[in-house]
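User: I'm new to structure prediction. If I give you an amino acid sequence, what do you actually give back? Let's try with this one:
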Amino acid sequence: MSRRISGFKPTGPLQLGNYVGAIRPVVRGQHEQPTVVFIADLHALTVPHDPVLLQARSREVAGLLLAAGVDPDHALLYRQSDVAAHLELHYLLECVTSYGEAHRMIQFKEKGGGGGSRLSLLTYPVLMAADILLHDIDEVPVGRDQRQHVELTRDLAVRFNERYGATFTVPEAVHPEVAARIADLADPARKMGKTNASTAGVLFLLDKPDVLRRKIMRAVTDAGTEVVYDPDGKPGVANLLDILGALTDRDPREIAAEHEKNGYGGLKARLADAVIATLEPIQRRYHELTDEEIEAVLAKGAERAAERAGRTVRRTKAALGLTGGRRAPAGSPATPATAGRPS
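Assistant: Good question. You get back a string of structure tokens that encode the predicted 3D arrangement of the chain. For your 343 residues, that looks like this:
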């Protein structure tokens, strides 16, 4: 079966877009296909950060994943920095990556990459490639803005295999249907994100019910009062319908028809009820978890991840001719490693 991977960067509190576009698909698919889920704390080091807050955010993300239904008995859940193989493979892959490839990554340009930026901001797509290739991943669920990084991963895997022998599984990018539709309630032209400058239009998973309802009732709508699904003409209303459709697994056009004569207020009230009903049990389970329980799950996951990842690194080293990989018998020619899916 195809193996999938999802990483969650602890640079801010998780929000509804993360849940609908990434967390819920993991929970729904973890029993049908092998699934890897990791807290991408190393990726959070590409920008200035508070070490204490980073540690707390990492544990919070892990707790929310567990509370939302990620089952560590089925999905491999761990913290990235607890598995040294991520860093080791990162460097080995840098040795087959050109400067031009890294510099062309769109997010480096969007985040102001330049002389004052950290080098890790330039090279983190290679670390992302290492995250994926460590686990012989077949499918990587990503939003459209991350597709370029998966393409880089594919290029590096193919190039390495051609130069040094079959070593890596070449992954495919898959795009969740809903993830790209969740927009900021205060600015429907931009994606709902955990690091948006203003939080007025962001529904965080740990927002209290009254806060969630207030943000939704103040959501930007459009001219007129008729509820119709028109993403171009009425992006604010369409966003509300998209969110409600995603939470209820219904076509937003059908929901619009039900509210055609009720006006925006009725739609917002219904959406607020749906969001609160979705997040209340997650919040309850999250607050029942202790730090010790979360850390125990992460430690156990890191042990499992390190075993598989270690095999990948040894295979890679052997292909490169490094003594840290499998050694050929004295006097015999080196044989390229053959990629094999770890058990």
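You can read the tokens as a compact description of the fold. Here is one thing that stands out. The chain is about 50% helix and 5% strand.
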